[in-house]
Amino acid sequence: MFAYRIDRRSGVATYVQIVQQTKQALRLGLLDVGDQLPTAREVVAATAINPNTVLKAYRELEREGLVEARRGQGTFVRQALGRADHNGLRTDLAAWASRARAEGLEREDALALAAAVLDEHFPQGHEGDAG
Amino acid sequence: MTVQEWAVEASGLTMRYGRRRAPVLDDCRLTVPAGSVCGLVGPNGAGKSTLLALAAGLLRPSSGELRVLGSVPPGARAEVAYVAQSKPLPSQLTVAAVLRLGAELNRSSGRWSSKAAESIAYEQGGLDPRERIRSLSGGQRTRVALALAFGKRARLMLLDEPMADLDPLARQKLMGALMAEASEHGTTIVMSSHVLPELEGTCDHLVLLGAGRVRLAGPVDELVSSHVLLTGAGSLDGQRVVEQRPAGRGATALVRRGDALPPGWEAVEPSLEEIVLAHLRTTGSTAPEEAAV
């Protein structure tokens, strides 16, 4: 089952955290079309947040066309988000990562390198709408 | 069963312990919508425990009206669970025997759930069913009392500082279980607490008591959106200021959101905690607010 992680001190509204984490899961392929989101009961039992917060987040995802509520069954993924691996990008990156590791780079070294290259190709201020 | 709009409804509610003493609750008017998770906050001695005990039907009001699930307490007793700060449990019985007792005493209502009670008592670092109540710690007794409350499958749970003596793991489990109960059964929950951040994510309704009066009450999102936190300098004429404090050469002020914001002030949305703290600090120095937002 997919689990949400709520950070009460982040300053980000709780329902927004649920929306963002769901989208992140869709991007990463942790959730795919037809998958069921956890029920409101399951989310609140695990995270101890108010049930209305979960319902608000799910309504927002529904409004954006990403999920659909099926009466008496639950909430299901309707549309995947632009996943990054459909052209083998993830595979290429995985090959790069394993080569970096083989050459003795630490995790932080690889991250710094990747961030530097990303900065070259995606200049700050041209990120577009991340949502 | 009729659908009631309000789980708790009070008007003119006054409670005094002895004729010559000041009332603990003084002409209180408040409503708790059915199905809400309501936080009851206020300084020590504000009347929170008295209000909960009145709602549970353990005390009778000196005057005024009080209805709980549509009845005068303790009329709806079978559908109301109440956990007091002192946990009166039979000390010589084992945990398992107390839960059996709960099942017997609630047999007539037909609502008792052993599964719900046992989940709270035994799961996740829970209790040993063979242990006797007298050998339990305060937090463990709380757990037994809460297990009885959950087993009752009440429509209204009245909890007087339920988290106070629980460890972090038990707190998280209990809060999760409460929210699941509200989500699944539409149970109304009224709980007093001093831990404001704990209430911020869980409560959708809030009642703030101060010196026996309702100082602030309403849906949490409306309470938040009806206040604004201003930082700046200059005049605040025409603003309904809740609290103002110096900040450098200027001030920060929590005000009621009006038609127009004063020029030259930066406005941000306050957190529920900031609103409650501001009202708590000014309790006694201002006239009580209307119960409505």
TrEMBL record, chain A:
Residues 12-80 form the HTH gntR-type domain. One of its GO terms (molecular function) is DNA binding. InterPro entries: Tscrpt_reg_HTH_GntR, WH-like_DNA-bd_sf, WH_DNA-bd_sf. The keyword Transcription applies. The keyword DNA-binding applies. Keywords: DNA-binding, Transcription, Transcription regulation. This is GntR family transcriptional regulator.
TrEMBL record, chain B:
Keywords: ATP-binding, Nucleotide-binding, Transport. The keyword Oxidoreductase does not apply. The keyword ATP-binding applies. One of its GO terms (molecular function) is ATP hydrolysis activity. Residues 8-236 form the ABC transporter domain. InterPro entries: AAA+_ATPase, ABC_transporter-like_ATP-bd, ABC_transporter-like_CS, ABC_Transporter_VariousFunc, P-loop_NTPase. SMART domains: AAA. PROSITE patterns: ABC_TRANSPORTER_1, ABC_TRANSPORTER_2. CDD domains: ABC_DR_subfamily_A. Pfam families: ABC_tran. This is ABC transporter ATP-binding protein. It comes from Streptomyces mesophilus. The lineage of its organism: Bacteria, Bacillati, Actinomycetota, Actinomycetes, Kitasatosporales.
